[in-house]
């Protein structure tokens, strides 16, 4: 895959090098001034004439741009390849079904049995709890900031929301475990008591009052991804064409109806894209969840009051075991799954976002 | 339905900028009133003040009164949303809701007003689209998005949307400036048709258009750069174009018209 990308890139420059006269026009305007005002920059460029100077700059820029593009893509490919190469031997030595098993026994390289089901459950459940809480809140904040708040208030408020992204995740972890978890206990007990007949709110594999469960983790994650979703949503809502807003107003729409008929339809896909970006972040969050989620050997009950480990926190917790290739390979296999899923979610987010505003002028 | 407008001593501001000064004029029911004048003299500003759209711009301010059949739309306690439902507006650039279907675009105003009856909405859709001379072109694709129409069709869709709520007055700000001559003629015909039922105010830069469609014409001017725009004179269209009472009007019209 890397090779095919490479050859595409390589074949592109000559093809485009034929076209520049038209395209390079804008660069030509700025270009000639450089040699004119100071002394000639470098002797070798002089005999070729001015045109060549510009071409060289163009080439350089193009080279740098494509070079960095290739660099980034190959780093990602190299990471993927590294994960794959290291995971394969461990997967061969695995005595359990990697995709269907929930156990995690990796200490003895001769006798490993590990699977990702439990990890996947905890990861997905906490991320979804986060998303379900963060999406309406972020959407509400973004609508408030772009449509309702006076400018003097909107700017500082937006800044404060952005500040949430600057808090280190270990702080979030400590806050979640030490402050939020005790506060949430009565809430968790109440949900578990009244809605316990719904499986997702039933007793988990740790007591509902422990606090170190998916419920707490999801709420902390929600706060962590709030600035991402809010930021994207704010941007797309702000871009709603004023002609459309005025059109709705002139029809006698109230503020809320303007939002419903123009701002929301215009920004919806961008907002969902932002939520996907947040999801990608939540899936990969490590430190905060390592601190919050308590460790248990019991399998999950598929309730939000389960405790356990996510992909990322399992890997972080397992670092003490990283003493032989096969054991490490097992963790790397889990990491590979996480890598692929966050990659997929992010790609989906970009795809949805780029579709926002298409065919909408 | 159609109502008259009496505009008294209207002064309009954007923050500290005094955009329009002391406008007093009458708009007759079931007739077309054209606003003409050089760019920046405040035609759009006055027009937008008539249905209280001026105040949606942050920092803007209105002094004076606009009487709709004797009732001041700026009286305390009057809800601007209600005013905009009775005084419709068509903008310079067609602005249908692009993702909404053609049908939903037409009845958007009715739905905002709380009308749910399917049959009634269906009737209004057809009546308004016929009224806007668009029915034949779109009757087979009412469920397609409004953004998929041509520019001229979109503008007629906006007119249909505006007349669907049967407003007392219809305001049009250069409705043809982004259109080709054929679409322009279609809309001018439409205006002639609509004035049987509606009171229409139209801003235009096209003298011929003003002469063709309007019954009375108001000429606005800027005395000097930086000064507020003023209403120079208003009168029967034939008289304004053939024998204006003000030098400025004559200069503007002969410069642009002759
Ligand atoms: N949103 C606004 N904020 C501040 N000033 C404005 C705004 N809109 C218009 N103005 C100013 O008010 C004055 C009148 O503008 P207006 O748009 O009413 O002119 P106009 O007669 O409609 O011109 P045109 O024929 O070019 O459409 C102009 O000086 C303009 O710069
Ligand atoms: Mg204007």
From TrEMBL, chain A:
It holds the Pfam family BPD_transp_1. Residues 35-46 have a biased composition (Pro residues). InterPro entries: MetI-like (IPR000515), MetI-like_sf (IPR035906), Phosphate_PstC (IPR011864), Phosphate_Transport_Permease (IPR051124). It comes from the Bacteria. GO terms for biological process: phosphate ion transport. PROSITE patterns: ABC_TM1. SUPFAM superfamilies: MetI-like (SSF161098). It is a multi-pass membrane protein. One of its GO terms (cellular component) is plasma membrane. Residues 1-51 are annotated as: Disordered. Residues 120-349 form the ABC transmembrane type-1 domain. It is found in: Cell membrane. Its main location: membrane. One of its GO terms (molecular function) is phosphate transmembrane transporter activity. Keywords: Cell membrane, Membrane, Phosphate transport, Transmembrane, Transmembrane helix, Transport. The chain crosses the membrane at residues 60-85, 119-145, 157-177, 214-233, 328-352. CDD domains: TM_PBP2 (cd06261). Part of the binding-protein-dependent transport system for phosphate; probably responsible for the translocation of the substrate across the membrane. Belongs to the binding-protein-dependent transport system permease family. CysTW subfamily. PANTHER family: PHOSPHATE TRANSPORT SYSTEM PERMEASE PROTEIN PST, PHOSPHATE TRANSPORT SYSTEM PERMEASE PROTEIN PSTC. This is Phosphate transport system permease protein.
UniProtKB/TrEMBL annotation, chain B:
Residues 5-247 form the ABC transporter domain. It is found in: Cell inner membrane. One of its GO terms (molecular function) is ATP binding. SMART domains: AAA. Its main location: membrane. Pfam families: ABC_tran. Keywords: ATP-binding, Cell membrane, Membrane, Nucleotide-binding, Phosphate transport, Translocase, Transport. PROSITE patterns: ABC_TRANSPORTER_1, ABC_TRANSPORTER_2. The keyword Membrane applies. One of its GO terms (biological process) is phosphate ion transmembrane transport. InterPro entries: AAA+_ATPase, ABC_transporter-like_ATP-bd, ABC_transporter-like_CS, P-loop_NTPase, PstB-like. GO terms for cellular component: plasma membrane. It is a peripheral membrane protein. Part of the ABC transporter complex PstSACB involved in phosphate import. Responsible for energy coupling to the transport system. This is Phosphate ABC transporter ATP-binding protein, PhoT family (TC 3.A.1.7.1).
């Amino acid at each position: 895959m890397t090779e095919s990308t490479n050859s595409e890139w390589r074949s592109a420059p000559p093809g485009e090098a034929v076209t520049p006269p038209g395209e390079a026009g804008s660069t030509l305007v700025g270009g000639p001034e450089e040699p004119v005002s100071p002394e000639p920059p470098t002797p070798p460029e002089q005999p070729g004439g001015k045109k060549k100077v510009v071409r060289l700059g163009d080439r350089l820029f193009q080279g740098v741009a494509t070079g960095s593009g290739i660099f980034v893509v190959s780093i990602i490919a190299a990471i993927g390849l590294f994960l794959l190469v290291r995971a394969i031997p461990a997967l061969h030595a695995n005595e359990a079904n990697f995709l269907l098993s929930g156990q995690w026994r990796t200490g003895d390289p001769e006798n490993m049995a590990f699977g990702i089901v439990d990890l996947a459950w905890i990861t997905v459940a906490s991320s979804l709890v986060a998303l379900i809480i963060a999406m309406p809140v972020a959407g509400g904040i973004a609508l408030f900031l772009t449509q309702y708040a006076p400018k003097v208030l909107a700017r500082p408020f937006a800044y404060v929301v952005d500040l949430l992204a600057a808090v280190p995740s270990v702080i979030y972890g400590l806050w979640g475990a030490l402050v939020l978890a005790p506060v949430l206990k009565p809430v968790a007990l109440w949900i578990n008591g009244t809605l316990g007949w719904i499986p997702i709110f039933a007793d988990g594999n740790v007591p509902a009052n422990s606090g170190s469960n998916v419920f707490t983790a999801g709420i902390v994650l929600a706060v962590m991804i709030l600035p991402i979703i809010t930021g994207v949503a704010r941007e797309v809502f702000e871009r709603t064409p004023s002609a459309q807003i005025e059109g709705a107003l002139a029809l006698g729409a109230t503020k809320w109806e303007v939002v419903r008929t123009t701002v929301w339809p215009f920004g919806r896909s961008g907002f969902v894209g932002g939520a996907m970006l947040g999801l990608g972040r939540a899936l990969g969050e490590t430190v905060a969840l390592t601190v919050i989620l308590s460790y248990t050997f019991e399998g999950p009950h598929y309730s939000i009051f389960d405790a356990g480990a996510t992909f990322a926190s399992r890997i972080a917790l397992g670092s003490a075991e990283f003493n032989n290739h096969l054991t490490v390979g097992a963790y790397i296999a889990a990491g590979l799954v996480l890598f692929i899923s966050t990659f997929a979610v992010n790609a989906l987010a970009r795809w949805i976002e780029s579709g926002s505003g298409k065919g909408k002028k | 339905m159609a109502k008259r407008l009496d505009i008294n001593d209207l002064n309009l501001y954007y923050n500290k900028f005094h955009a329009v000064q002391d406008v007093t004029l009458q708009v007759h029911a079931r007739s077309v009133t054209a606003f003409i004048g050089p760019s920046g003299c405040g035609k759009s500003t006055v027009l937008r003040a008539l249905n209280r759209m001026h105040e949606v711009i942050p920092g803007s301010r209105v002094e004076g009164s606009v009487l709709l059949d004797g009732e001041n739309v700026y009286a305390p306690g009057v809800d601007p949303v209600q005013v905009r439902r009775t005084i419709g507006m068509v903008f310079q650039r067609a602005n249908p809701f692009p993702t909404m279907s053609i049908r939903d675009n037409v009845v958007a105003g009715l739905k905002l007003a709380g009308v749910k009856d399917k049959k009634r909405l269906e009737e209004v859709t057809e009546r308004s689209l016929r009224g806007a001379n668009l029915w034949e072109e779109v009757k087979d694709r009412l469920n397609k998005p409004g953004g998929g129409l041509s520019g001229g069709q979109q503008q007629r869709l906006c007119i249909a949307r505006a007349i669907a709520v049967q407003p007392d007055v219809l305001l049009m700000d250069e409705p043809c400036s982004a259109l080709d001559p054929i679409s322009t003629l279609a809309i001018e015909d439409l205006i002639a048709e609509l004035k049987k039922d509606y009171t229409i105010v139209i801003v235009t830069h096209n003298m011929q258009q003003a002469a063709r469609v309007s019954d009375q014409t108001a000429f606005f001017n800027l005395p000097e750069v930086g000064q507020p725009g003023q209403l120079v004179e208003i009168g029967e269209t034939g008289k304004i174009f053939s024998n204006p009472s003000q030098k400025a009007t004559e200069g503007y019209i002969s410069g642009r018209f002759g």
